[in-house]
Here is the input.
Amino acid sequence: MSGYDRRLSDKLLIAFDQTCEQQDVEAARRLLALLDFLWQRDAGGTPERRGSVNFLLSARERFRHLVYLVEQRNRSAIAAAGRREAYRPHILEA
Here is the structure.
């Protein structure tokens, strides 16, 4: 059973980390939703399970940071494209 030595949530967290490294916001969002679902389903209200929420809080923080970075990159790209367009010589049509 070598493929089952980790919990599903651990495997999803590894995949989530990889999508964040690749700056794939949509995949990271979906994996985060799955992690949230698994935690809520498995928490069961017990104190020891509620204490394990730290991994989910860290994942949510990492996702917010990823979204911020991608938005900043997109804004910079749009601004750069606008500057290039402004400096492009315009050809007048007759």
Notes: Residues 13 and 33 are 11 Å apart (CA to CA). The mean pLDDT is 83. The two ends are 75 Å apart (CA to CA). Residues 54-87 form the longest helix (34 residues).
